Amino acid sequence: MAFNNNNNNKYVLLTFAVCPLIVAVGLTVVPELVDVGLSVERRKLEAVSVDFGRLSKGEAAAVAHPGTAEEVARVVKAAFEARFPVSARGHGHSINGQALIREKKGVVIEMGGQNQNDNSIRVFEKGMYVDVWGGKLWIEVLSATLEYGLAPMSWTDYLYLSVGGTLSNAGISGQTFNHGPQITNVYELDVVTGKGELVTCSEDRNAELFHAVLGGLGQFGIITRARIALEPAPQRVRWIRVLYSNFARFCKDQEYLISLHGKPEKERFDYVEGFVIVDEGLINNWRSSFFSASNPVKITSLNADGGVLYCLEITKNYNQANADSLEEEIQSLLKKLDFIPTSVFTTDLPYVDFLDRVHKAELKLRSKGLWDVPHPWLNLFVPKSRIADFDKGVFKGILGNKTSGPILIYPMNKNKWDQRSSVVTPEEDVFYLVAFLRSALDTETLEYLSNENRQILRFCHDSEIKVKQYLPHYTTHQEWMDHFGDKWTQFIARKMQFDPRQILATGQQIFQFDP
Ligand code: FAD
Predict the structure, then answer these.
(1) Same domain for 220 and 136
(2) 273 given a catalytic annotation
(3) How far apart are the first and last CA of the chain?
(4) Does the pLDDT at position 292 exceed 70?
(5) pLDDT tens, position by position, 450-498
(6) Ligand 1 pocket test: which of 95, 155, 158, 364 has the largest number of ligand atoms within 8 Å of its C-beta?
(7) Residue 494 needs a FRET pair 20 to 30 A away by CA distance; which of 48, 213, 233, 247 works?
(8) How confident is the model over 254-269, as a mean pLDDT?
(9) What is the Cα 137 distance to its own chain's centre?
């Protein structure tokens, strides 16, 4: 059996005894897996045994580096026949081991490997869409489409995430209120199902698979190609932050701004987000570097309500052609808001630099050794009707003044989410993302923050605030049933149809892999 063991296409012959995969799955798979770049190199196995969260450890037997959809299909087909788990790995930026293989005999399919062919991103100018290999990063998609003056419409805050990885969740950011999540902006997919079949799907063709896979947590198939909608790319961004000491006013303004979705561009902002500031250190921290060192913000000087401040973050895209009217449009929108008048912070930058803003922070943190640390993140969708209770109980209650990372908060319109997809959101027309994006530099902090996350979830449960986790993590069958609620029956039926042997994305721990 030949295994592609490094980047230079050097093949080595491995014996039966040293390859746990062969021992595990038997010789039947051998012809299927030649040439898919299968590796058992310790270095590679270690690389796929951790993720960004650094809270779990995987145990894969081998890593595949397929370059084509057919190669992905061959690996999955082999897994289907020999019954071993396979997990697509995009960029491994999950928090709770969602892209890991936890069973000793499984294979990680590295979608972002070096073996991708040259056609992995193709821009169709006339059709205003781009066809992308599922393992490509959004930053790569952006670079390719900008060559044609085009760009996708809906983003995540951070672009070093894979297309397949974010489409398996939703893909949200400040544009979601207007364009919907990334999963709303996909025309077509190529998917390898859990039976190893390569299927093209869209709203009109194999629609059940299409909707199942979007937000499907990798449970129904591996996305090898996505066709993503494009728009003319703006050149620059006016980026504005304003502060609130009153939560009700902050929410009222955020909700007003997202109610302008669908209005002509000049009558709305292009991006609406926000964050919560509960300690002095945070406001001038990595994600808030916007507040310049020469102009530091002091919470105490702003009369914060219960020691908490709220920052609304908005942007307006523009080009040379409409630069003249920009200021007027912004002022007319700002006039309707009720922020602290002295707290307007503005900057102006190229569109790419705005979209890629978190990467700058990553480089800063990396240089200080603060990136590859445990991240006990918690992301919740909170229904609008209970966001004030959440503020009282969590921001002004459970959280001490040591947050260990940014806390994002912004609302979205449910009507921009296609209810046929697998993702679940609260039952109300408007719901908020609240994201606790924390880093733990030592075991004690990790314990403290993990415990705080549990307290927040318990508070929501006890107060009957019907939150839904985004990037969900549960360990029991009952919790998953509760998470999916009305969609659980459909989720199971889709699983039976597209991955009947339950071999896909076992790291999500939704289904128990049974060899
Ligand atoms: P992985 O972690 O590799 O995989 C995630 C899941 O998807 C796994 O179950 C995996 O098996 C499955 N999967 C991966 N590729 C495929 C594929 N091709 N086909 C089918 N299934 C697949 N999310 C947002 O929505 N908005 C944000 O603004 C945002 N910001 C982030 C910032 C940072 C710094 C980080 C670390 C994460 C952020 N996320 C955000 C979360 C991110 O979208 C998810 O963690 C996503 O899963 C990461 O993509 P990935 O490519 O690393 O996926």
Answers:
(1) yes
(2) yes
(3) 23
(4) no
(5) 999 999 999 999 999 999 999 999 999 999 999 999 999 999 999 999 9
(6) 158
(7) 48
(8) 97
(9) 12
Residues 291 and 395 in one domain: yes
pLDDT at 149 over 90: yes
Does 302 lie in the same domain as 382? yes
Place of tokens 């039947």: 28
How far out from the chain centre does Cα 67 lie?
23
Which amino acid would we find at residue 172?
I
Backbone dihedral region of 125: left (phi > 0), alpha (psi from -120 to 50 degrees) or beta?
A: alpha
Write down the ipTM of this complex.
0.99
Distance from the alpha carbon of residue 341 to the mean position of ligand 1, in angstroms: 38
Domain boundary among 198, 232, 266: 232
For residues 306 and 445, membership in a common domain is answered with yes
**Is the pTM higher than 0.95?**
no
Q: Is residue 271 one of the residues assigned to a domain?
A: yes
**In a shared domain, residues 160 and 186:** yes
Give the ligand 1 atom nearest the CA of 223.
19
Does one domain contain both 267 and 349? yes
- Do residues 243 and 335 share a domain? yes
Q: Domain residues for 139? A: 118-232
**Test site for ligand 1: of 49, 54, 65, 94, most ligand atoms within 8 A of the Cβ:** 94
Write down the catalytic residue from 190, 273, 452, 499: 273
Hey, what amino acid is at 310?
Y
On whether residue 490 sits in a domain, the answer given is no
Domain count, the chain: 3
Structural element, H or E, at residue 262: none
